[in-house]
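Students often ask why we bother predicting the structure of a whole assembly rather than each chain alone. The short answer is interfaces. A chain on its own may look different once its partners are present, and contacts between molecules only exist in the joint model. In this exercise we take two input lines together and write out one structure for the complete complex. Read the inputs first and try to guess which parts will touch.
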Amino acid sequence: MEYLKINEKISLHRFGTPLKTGAVTLDLTGNDFSEKTEINHLNISYEQERINLVYNLKPEDRIFGLGETLGCFNKRGMKFRLFNSDDPVHTPEKESLYGTHCLFMVDGEESFGIFIDYPGEMILDIGFSKKNIFKISVSDNNFDLYIFKIDTLQELTRNYLHLCGTPYIPPAWAFGYQQSRWSYPDADSVNDIADHCRNLNIPCDAIFLDIDYMDNYKVFTVSDDKFPDFAKYVKKLKKAGFKLIPIIDPGVKIESGYSMYEEGKENNYFCKDNESNDFTAACWPGKIHFPDFLSPEVRLWWGNHHKEFLENGIEGFWIDMNEPSIFYAPSALSSYFEQVKEIESLEDPGFELFRLKWLSESLANHPDYYRSFFHNNEGIQKVTNESVHNLFGFKMAEATVEGFKKYLPGKRYFLVSRSSFSGQHRISAVWAGDNMSWWEHLIVHIRMLLSLGISGFFYSGSDVGGFGCNSSADLVIRWTQLGAFTPFFRNHSATGTRSQEPWAFDDDTLNIVRETIRTRYSLFPYIYSEFMRSVRDFHPFVSPLMMFFDSERVKGIEDQFMFGESLMITPVIERNAIGRYVHLPECNWLLWKSSKWHEHNCVIYKSGDYFIETGLEEIPVFMRENTLMIQAEPQNYIGETIITELFVTGLVTDEAVYEYYTDNGEDSKHKDGEFSTLTITVNAIDDSFDIKVKINENFEVPMDVNRLSFELYGSKKGVYKETITLTK
Amino acid sequence: MEYLKINEKISLHRFGTPLKTGAVTLDLTGNDFSEKTEINHLNISYEQERINLVYNLKPEDRIFGLGETLGCFNKRGMKFRLFNSDDPVHTPEKESLYGTHCLFMVDGEESFGIFIDYPGEMILDIGFSKKNIFKISVSDNNFDLYIFKIDTLQELTRNYLHLCGTPYIPPAWAFGYQQSRWSYPDADSVNDIADHCRNLNIPCDAIFLDIDYMDNYKVFTVSDDKFPDFAKYVKKLKKAGFKLIPIIDPGVKIESGYSMYEEGKENNYFCKDNESNDFTAACWPGKIHFPDFLSPEVRLWWGNHHKEFLENGIEGFWIDMNEPSIFYAPSALSSYFEQVKEIESLEDPGFELFRLKWLSESLANHPDYYRSFFHNNEGIQKVTNESVHNLFGFKMAEATVEGFKKYLPGKRYFLVSRSSFSGQHRISAVWAGDNMSWWEHLIVHIRMLLSLGISGFFYSGSDVGGFGCNSSADLVIRWTQLGAFTPFFRNHSATGTRSQEPWAFDDDTLNIVRETIRTRYSLFPYIYSEFMRSVRDFHPFVSPLMMFFDSERVKGIEDQFMFGESLMITPVIERNAIGRYVHLPECNWLLWKSSKWHEHNCVIYKSGDYFIETGLEEIPVFMRENTLMIQAEPQNYIGETIITELFVTGLVTDEAVYEYYTDNGEDSKHKDGEFSTLTITVNAIDDSFDIKVKINENFEVPMDVNRLSFELYGSKKGVYKETITLTK
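Now the answer. The structure tokens for the assembled complex follow.
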């Protein structure tokens, strides 16, 4: 085992000769590795090809991290198998989801962090099988293990991002509301959504196209029947403020004459089977081949094929089924039918009957499939998919980015991927995949979001209202209220389930959901400022309370979270609830029950535990003492109008400083300083407030704000209101 | 529609000519029905064979009841299909479970209760599809609907039980701990469990025999290989304090020469198919026939077959698969194989592939099956199973009771059934069926228990540790802590899952679980006294807070419950939790963190909201002001020793009266006055306590208590201890 101390905080233990995954971006060339046989905190044992790493849990140890996983935010007591999987039923015992992010912190008497950069299967048994044993089993003896010498979770993320790169920044409009369903299959149904949004005054920035927009599910096609003039259509919608976001799946339909198929076949772009034939699987299009995204040449080819979409005005995609999901492999199918016949031949099949169910269930995503096809990793090695399995989604995302780079050079793009790997936070968002319309999935959403943030996925979210099974009005209301305070804010649902758009229920529901979405839009100046700062500071945008407050109690709180630095969100996540408990740590807090964006009626609370009564139309949001929240008049879509007035709210007992940030929202020039800021400083002095405003304007980014309306709390005299007009 | 005012509280609306289900026991003969076309609160509409009843929900309305259903205790916002079903995956969207208990209360500005006595399918959409519409759809136009003019939930239960009879009382030992698994298949494995319990000092009263004890799953057989001398074995275990509880399934294996099969066939005891042949289904034994439990003659026959078990010393059974569960019907199987072949013949099956999964899934419990077999209801009518479906489990339980009546005359018996119907609370317990080792199922357990109590099932419980999938040490600990405060306290798990007996984990877990079970046994005098009183008073033993306290807030509390009249249980139901929130209504409360039965260290709390810190070994239990809790030294099994000393704990600021109740615990003579009581009266006077004890002894039931040790709180001087010795 080789050892490299990268800096005071990070060191690397290298087992064997790991394959380059692309997770790490920090340049380590020129560093001298030394030999080492031990790793701090971990006992190493070898078991055939596998390597087991064991940490002895102390009673007080908590485990935070692991990105997209189910269960508590504190992962202690759970078991995970990191092997990206398309499993649409996220019940609590499931060990695998769509992504692999093997970064976590042990928080206890001696705290530290670990990141394992390895693209195959890893099993983490975190005190599940044995209460005090944390066992990591890596399925190969070639991998990189990084140890972080850190004391806090925010330090873990900061150092991890130092190693693995800056989080993805979507275009500004991506912070708007997004509407989706499997499917709005044609122009008529998309029009219907767009019309509903605008006619009902529901702000919305994007509409998603699920698989049915294509011609027979052939990737990079658009059905002419359904979208007669797609280019024109995209532009028309864009004019109305809607971005269309088509889904892209990796499987290329086997169809003679279909250009993707022909090109892929001719150039050997597809993954191969044992006998070096193109590997055949089945997915939505029927029989397909998988592009070998591990090859740079294939990624370039794939990226190029986004040309038409991008030239037609498409600015974003969601990439799906990229674990990759396999409905069946033809070879397995024949064996399946044979086994069914065997059972048929039994006079009384008895328990064998259960095998019928099991056989049909195991047709999809069978482990054998991933052993039976091969990648030509970066053009040099032939490797089984199994051994690099968790990279497929990541490399597909990289392939997509090739397209963006070529056809939208310099522009920010929208990209959300179902499957993901460590490092992918630099280039795409992820969403939580196929959740369910279960109340129980609201807390799952929060916990996952917090864990993803630790791994650098600052922009993510889950399907608002729930994807699978039928939702209901109250669930959509509560989920929209939660979604309004998560970065990726999309309502999405599955075919065959009840419609769950804001207007799909009654007027009362429509009104509540509309007000919630308008509140979200009113917060755009805050959200965008905070998001950009979170990326700059390597501090998750949505973060657990423990990143701000230090107590044992706070470390156990998993149903409240910080949204930026000023707001703590305490969503109501139980059906029929008339309120909820909240813990307010350390300082005073200002409760704003946001049922209308411009009505605050805030109440001051001291730190402590409270039961906060909450109507169905209300979501309790707490402002932290000596911070500010800024809002603007809601728009129909981000960028519809220029923001000239900010509404500033806060509880100020000493000093609060807020930096409103703005840039063009569509490219990377902010990196070169093309952004402007307006700094608001409020000082509490003698039961009144002293307000100072300072503008830092880059001439490319006009600071259009010329009016600031304040609603300040904390004075004994009650709420203080003032409006300031700025003159340049 | 006919109408009958039964009394000031209850009236009956009779639609058509309902079949007698046996739910109602109140004698209505001699009453004169009148004609009526309307029902208070409900709009009636007719839709072909169905009748729809609609109630317009007001914003504040809450719905309580519906017995064994998933979801919140307040059922508003949910949808249920009452059609008894064997579905082992209790995810939140499931509309059917094993039982039908169509009794509920609308709690709002105008409160009332409804009970529908109908054995076929009923669909209740309680504001799920439309937020303010509660629609009950009854699949036939012959049924009885009772309206209760009541204001409180306790009134609902009281009046319902007046109508439908007194709850089942199990033998006293049924309040002990019970150990189960699918399976302890033979004497060796049962011995192993018994030895572990006694050697490790884990109290236990019963061990369950799941399906594998039988000879080829043939009902009423015991495998000679596995239990060479069953009669002797039962007695041996009983001597050690263990009752053996075999499972009984309804399906009779089709096997020539097997007496149950031959007798059933010869006497036409089996349900018939369309062509009047014995209907064939498949279950554990392979192909089976179902006894027609709706016929009294069949019930007698079935009951008689318990002879050998009962004469061998068996005192209880659990009856299972009695929805009835059907793995497949042979006719469906051939159609299944045909359809599979059709799919096989397609060149590219595409989406048809999903049908393979769907086809195999729908082999079990297909709705068609229940349309294709027939009962000879009470010997007079030929009816489809579908039309009386929800009675099958109930009538099977009645058949079992025939056996008890004949071979254990006058004795109490133990009977727990998976499937159930209204009225069955008189003759059996139910348990929650095949739950999962999910933390999320702890709250499901609590809510279901509370709802079952409303329907008269005072003795019930769910599988501690969870039945399906793998449990873990911390989950077993928390679930045991909850189970210790539920009437039926059984640890049970499925084949293929991890063992979850108290000793299956580490020493720490063993110690905690043992102490928890010992605490349960220490509470036996309290539990038994309270249970018997609850039955006498028609007030659920385990009950929601709203049965004691009246506030909007209290009506929303679903994770705390009253256990008898003195104790409020606030179990910890989240993984890794370091405590939980509790709401303490109205009065003062005494917190006892029960980690050891005899260590109290109680703390007094005023009413309000609190976060109570709780170690993994602790379950927070609150004693209500001016009530008492009584305990005794834990035993290895109920009745092992005579209880001579009681430990009395309480927070007394005024007066507390407790009536300790005892009887022989094994028959019904208590109904004739064969019980004794000891009444403890504590008065708080001048910072001290005045204690009075009064014995009411029936000469058949000696009152053996001769020592009372008090630990009383509420005095300014701190805890007060006194021991009183009684002399007769």
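Check your guess against this: The longest strand of chain B covers residues 676-685.
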